[in-house]
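HUMAN: Can I see a protein plus its fold?

ASSISTANT:
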Amino acid sequence: MKFRFLLWMLGRLMGKASRTNPDFQQQLGDKDLTFQLHTLDGKVARHFIVKDQRITSKSGPAVEPAFSLGFKDAAYGYATMTAKNKQLAFMQGIQDKHIQIQGNPALVMWFQGLTKYLKPRKKK
């Protein structure tokens, strides 16, 4: 349940950033693609559509994603995406085959670069 909520929130945050954050919009560039995050057992899936410098998300698997990130299960996906050192958690998961990437690995790196814009802003 936590993982499903996390993916939904990720969609909301990226959608808002794509409307209001010029740096985020610049990272989206002229990309026109769909990607998905899911569990390998197929119980949880959410896909994200990037088009015209906007991101929208829908529940369920995508028809033909440019890339997909599959986590061994929802608890593992949640733990990985909320880890303090996400990069290490992802690399460890890929090495242990608990995370599977289908599609273009360069786009996965691009997606991970997008997430840095979603951190809450610190109050001055």
